[in-house]
Amino acid sequence: MVNEDKQPAAAEQPTEFEEPSFDPDVMEPPLPPPVVVPPPVEEPPAAPAKPKAPKAPKKPKSVYVSGLPEDISDYDFGEYFSKCGIIDKDAETAEKKCKVYRDEEGRCKGDGVVHYFKPESVQLAIQLLDGSQITPGHTIAVQEAKYEKKRVKGQKKPKQISKKIKRYDASKELSWEEDDNCHVIMKHMFTQEEAWATPDFFDVLKEEVVAECEKFGTVKNIKVFERNPEGVVAVKFLLHPAAQRCIEKMNGRFFGGSRLEAFFYDGFADYEVKETEEQKEKRIEEWNKWLEDQEEEEKNQKK
Predict the structure, then answer these.
(1) Using N-to-C axis directions, what is the helix angle for 240-250 and 120-129, rounded to 10°?
(2) Single residue among 144, 164, 186 that ends a domain in this structure
């Protein structure tokens, strides 16, 4: 009898794929898929703050004056230095910020200070007025004023101006419309006697003034105050530097035998002088006489 090895029975192959059933009592539920958390986005480091540029030092607006005579008044002192620009005024009282230092008896100590509205006026005052005679025999020295702030112990802070009080606005004095003063006033340009000697005097005068002032810059307008006894002429330049050059050259210059005064217009002075009835009659009479003389001269030429 032949021994035949018994072969294991072949396992039965499932005919179809069967998903395993889930029995909550037998096995645990499958784990949910892992949640993918994106890595945190790192913000770029903040740029370092730019250092603040240092503030430009303020330009000086005041001049210190020495060599003043004992009897000078604050008004004359201010008028003399107003040639170089608009003098600043107190915001509450609107008084000019020019001071003559005086002793207990009210006599001038010989020095004073002027505070301008524009810093450019400081250099102009030094150029024009340093070494000049404010009155005959009194030569003054003009330099930039320097202040040292000193706080006295126990001193109270200055009283603040109430907002209800209308403050004085010095910027309105700069000119009629421009931000910088372009108006120059010149005195002693003519006398009343020579002005009314010939009918075309003022026309000729305007032509001469414009021709001379055009050397400094463009002239926009000219005004002759015909009845002003001081012989006043106002010139309006296109630009402020031209007006400044005009003052530098014309102030103190001799014109027609008279020494001129040239300075910036302060925005307030009225140089217009109204003609009286007597002056009007005299002007008409002189005009008629001039016409008669012209007719007589023409007749003589024809002969």
Answers:
(1) 10
(2) 144
